[in-house]
Amino acid sequence: MRVVPRILKTIAVLFVVIIFGGAVWLYASPPELLRVGDGYAAKVVCSNVFIAGRDPDAVLYEDVQAPGNPLLRLVRVAVDREEKRVTARILGLFAPGYAIYRGGFGCTAVPDGNFEAATKSVQNLPVTSVSQSNATWPEGDAAASSNDDGLARLLADKSLIGPAMRAVVVVHNGRIVAEAYGDGFGPKMPLIGWSMTKTVNAAILGRLMLEGKIGFDDARLLPQWKDGEHAAIRLRDLLGMESGLAFDEDYATVADVTRMLYLDADMTALPSGLPVKALPGKRFNYSSGTSTLIAKIWMDRLGSGQAALAYPREALFDPLGMTSAVFEVDARGTFAGSSYLYATAHDWARFGQFLLQGGVWEGRRLLPESFVAAMRAPTKASGGKYTQAQAWLAAPGGDSSAEAGLPEDTFWMEGHDGQSVAIVPSANLVVVRLGLTPSRLGYRPQTLVREVVAALQKQ
Fold it and tell me: What 8-state DSSP symbol labels residue 274?
């Protein structure tokens, strides 16, 4: 009978050894999937705490754990407010992910843990205060008076504004005529646009076009692209997501996009080195790596690191009065042109109105007419869904304007988890919708926009 206790003891010892060995392995060489998860958590918490002023526990639960991969529910975060750093670890122990706040440049993931290099990669950019003006929007932030209770009823309809809505702003004839906010959110809180950042990044490039510093047909766009297949890639190919680069935009695993955002200190390293898998201009491939390279290209054209870092605010945000805008930079000093712009709903609306007005603001042309036209012109390779300058003609979910029951001239800025700005020139209308609404929930903002158009037509 002594055999049984010995067997049980041996099993217990083996169990302890396996657990200990697994812990040592996770600590010394964590899988990349865990590192991506912790890097994502650290970055999201950092930006929402230091830019939006939100509670870190609420951000961890609402923004990271509730809508995400089940593994994210094991993540624990620590916020160092003095050093302005966030650390995330699985079970509070393994695969640490880091992020650091750098004032006017917001937060950045620091996947290599080199905080000194991340800090030195950008020089000081003062944090601007969100506009407190009582003047009517867009000069200030007060909504115009509206006698139409119908719009208010539409924005109170949860089936129209969608689950986890955080902000909806309706701009008609250049004035805010209706707005609504989710619990805990308001007109002064900067919110992330995710891939709507791509359109803003493109507009910054358009500012350089107006100055004659870059053109649609420029090629040999990066130092490492002077020869070979990459030399033929033109700027217009990148803008239309038709570069031919083999970028994998799969967020469910460790793919090119998650590696770029959460494992690489220099976000340009991976996409710039990818092979060319198709002739430029012949195949559509939606790619956040492409947008990051666009940021690198326009920054290089400005020649000076400091001049490039100051350019978005000087060339675009200040003229538009987007006082809340925070365009975040990677750990080596390149703007994250694919994903990381925070702004209030009023400032997202200002940018949408700017595009509605054809790149003109307060009588001053800031974008070439040809560039705004490209933002509204379809690309052939995308089947008419994407435009020639980092915007969408297809509504979220892939519907055409006709299929969505919207005016044919409608075009869109679209972002992850339900961010959108609909721009309808023929109705003189901009509709901003921000939230945390994963695509699996099936929400479509075009239904809201269609109802708003119909309500305005009745006035």
Answer: P
Residue 125 lies in a domain: no
CA distance 103 to 101: 6
Q: What is the pLDDT of residue 253?
A: 83
Query: CA–CA separation, 113 vs 94, rounded Å?
Result: 14
Range of the domain at 105: 32-120
The alpha carbon of 38 is separated from its chain's Cα centroid by a whole number of angstroms, namely 18
d(C-alpha 198, C-alpha 351), whole Å:
13
How far is the C-alpha of 221 from the C-alpha of 223, rounded, in Å?
A: 7
The C-alpha atoms of residue 324 and residue 410 are separated, in whole angstroms, by: 26
State the amino acid at position 90 in one-letter form: I
pLDDT by residue (tens digit) across 360-393? 999 999 999 999 999 999 999 999 999 999 999 9
Burial of 295 (0-12, 13-18, 19+ CB in 10 A): buried
**DSSP conformation letters of 115-154:** HHHHHHTS---PPPPPP---SBTTTSSBPPP---HHHHHH
**396 — alpha (psi -120 to 50), left (phi > 0) or beta?**
beta
- With cut-offs at 50, 70 and 90, classify the pLDDT of residue 26: very low
| Structural contact between residues 391 and 378, judged by C-beta atoms closer than 8 angstroms | no
Could you say which of 87, 120, 153 is where a domain stops? 120
Nearest to 75 by CA among 38, 25, 48: 38
- Residue among 33, 421, 67 nearest 263 (CA): 33
Strands (E), 73-126: 75-80, 85-90, 94-101, 107-109
| Residue 392, domain member (yes or no) | yes
